Amino acid sequence: MKIIISGATGFIGKEVLNYALSQKSISSVLCISRRALPEPISSNPKVKVIILEDFTSYPPEILAQLEGADACIWALGKPAFKSSDLELCRKIEIDFCHAAADAFCSSLAPALKKNGKTFRFVYLSGWGAERDATKKLWMMRDTRTIKGEVENGLLALQQQEGSNFEVSVARPFGVVPKDTSMPNMVIGCFDVIKVDTLAAAMVNEVVENLSGTRTYENKALRNIGEKILKGEDAIVVTK
User: How far from 13 is each of 16, 86, 111, 142, CA to CA, in Å?
Assistant: First the structure.
């Protein structure tokens, strides 16, 4: 299986990449990045780094390098509450993600249909993402509506006639380091999630690639990820 990962240098994306590389079912990981990845990742035989200067454009030479990909995990971006420039945040969060999804839907997904496969796009969203832009929100409005706008655009692509593109949305809350000193009981009580648990749940979504669209809230992500890391079979639930 060949997958695409964006945001592989970030806190969550890096863990997604490391977990993906540990999976025997994943033979190749294509990392789209503005710059080369550090060692030892860059020299890993499973990894191919594709340098993309403009994340709003996927010319033929870039798509040729992505050919044969079965799925994408999109972990690129920074929520609005962490950004000092809202317009730049919207460009990175919305425009970059939608440009990639549109390119993959039109250029990569059709080839999979011949083999009875569907292209799976797993989007790293966030807690409280709101798809209804008219709804009154009293907390983190920009962050939540931007994430919701991304989700809407992805779902619209999936709903196009003849589309061979399916979307999964991950909405984690309070992602903490995997070596956190926080006891597991406290993690459950405060509804946070360890980054390696989140990574396992997201990678599992592309590996299993069960038919349908799913939105995973934090508790579901934690339940799935913890089961996988324990070597147990994960039951797909979305709440």
Answer: 5, 22, 27, 22
231: left (phi over 0), alpha (psi -120 to 50) or beta: left
Q: Is the pLDDT of residue 29 over 60?
A: yes
Count of Cβ atoms closer than 10 Å to residue 160 Cβ:
11
Q: Which H, E and C letters describe the chain, residue by residue?
A: CEEEEECCCCHHHHHHHHHHHCCCCCCEEEEEECCCCCCCHHHCCCEEEEECCCCCCCCHHHHHHHCCCCEEEECCCCCHHHCCCHHHHHHHHHHHHHHHHHHHHHHCHHHHHCCCCCEEEEEECCCCCCCCCCCCCCCCHHHHHHHHHHHHHHHHHHCCCCCCEEEEEEECCCEECCCCCCCHHHHHHCCCEEHHHHHHHHHHHHHHCCCCCEEEEHHHHHHHHHHHHCCCCCCCCCC
Q: How many CB atoms lie within 10 A of CB 103?
A: 18
Instruction: Judge contact between 202 and 208, C-beta under 8 A.
Output: no
Band of pLDDT at residue 236, cut at 50, 70 and 90 = low
pLDDT in tens, 44-78: 999 999 999 999 999 999 999 999 999 999 999 88
- What length does the chain have? 239
Question: What's the token pair of residue 90?
Answer: 């919207």
CA distance 225 to 238: 13
Question: How far is residue 144 CA from its own chain's centroid?
Answer: 17
Residue 221's DSSP bridge partners are none
